[in-house]
Amino acid sequence: MQPDGATKIYGIMGKPVSHSLSPVIHNAAFRAQGLNKVYVAFEVTDVVRALDGFRALGVGGVSVTIPHKQAVIAHLDAIDPVAQKIGAVNTLLIEDMHIHGHNTDWIGANQALEMIVDLPAATVLVLGAGGAARAIAFGLQEKGATVILANRTLAKGQALARDLNCECRPLADLKNLKADALVNATSVGMAPNVDATPVPKTVLKNVPAVMDIVYAPSETRLLREARQVGCKTIDGAYMLLYQAVAQFELWTGRKAPVDVMKEALFSRLNSE
Ligand code: ATR
Predict the structure, then answer these.
(1) Whose CA is closest to atom 6 on ligand 1?
(2) Which of 15, 24, 123, 211 is the most exposed place for a label (fewest CB within 10 A)?
């Protein structure tokens, strides 16, 4: 559908943002459902003015990415309680000049992980203590899972573990730890550092399911070694997919065309 006088605008705000895969995913979904909506990238430096611009122009919804996920919070009209707890917003829903902040990263992570593990009953070892680890760990607790955190810098891990009220281990000492799943929420293994992995292969023998948030390469060294020792694995593209699915559903109130969104994302990733 060509944009016309009634086209509703959606987008992603971040900096940099030109390499984002979100326009590909969301425009495919809008097209598949015949919605008169378009999704574009906004490279934003001034968060306050950008939010006012969205209000003034009647933008319908915006994805928020690095470095603005925390900075937007002070300028919202309302915030979802889980996003508040996480302290990061990756989705704006804008209605009648009113901006409501949400976080769908944790929903995407849970949905992806549920492909390989039964979550409410699970103990999940989360590697990392940055923004991604924080969203994933709070999200897992929201779902009823037990979280154990492990981080290279123990003090930073302990600070997040206090917020979560969970156990924390140094990343270098996970030898005898048993868990139902392991999630890499660090950037270790991301291209171009494809030979790096956050934990030795021996640790993977004690966990039956492994998810990586890294999606380039699609099979990181961590996932390759996990597969070799017999773990179920899921790559980071699924978290990306399902956080977008949750955004689409928030913005449209409709069930998302998941297969179309998956095909759009995976064909773009495979062509890169
Ligand atoms: P994000 O917001 O994307 O999660 P971040 O806040 O910079 O990014 O956090 C990065 C995480 O990856 C941290 O947990 C970091 O560990 P430290 O707290 O010890 O810095 C982890 N990380 C990054 N590079 C790492 C490496 N080479 N080995 C182990 N952990 C690493």
Answers:
(1) 130
(2) 15
Nearest residue by C-alpha to atom 22 in ligand 1:
186
Query: Tokens 């919605």 identify what position?
Result: 35
Closest atom of ligand 1 to CA, residue 127: 14
- Provide the residue-wise pLDDT of the chain in tens; the chain has 272 residues: 789 999 999 999 999 999 999 999 999 999 999 999 999 999 999 999 999 999 999 999 999 999 999 999 999 999 999 999 999 999 999 999 999 999 999 999 999 999 999 999 999 999 999 999 999 999 999 999 999 999 999 999 999 999 999 999 999 999 889 999 999 999 999 999 999 999 999 999 999 999 999 999 999 999 999 999 999 999 999 999 999 999 999 999 999 999 999 999 999 999 98
Cα(119) to centroid(ligand 1), Å = 24
| Angstrom distance (rounded) from CA 14 to CA 223 | 29
Active site residues: 69
Residues of 7-20 as b/e, b for ≥16 C-beta within 10 angstroms? ebbbbbbbeebeeb
253 HSE (CA, 13 A, CB side): 1
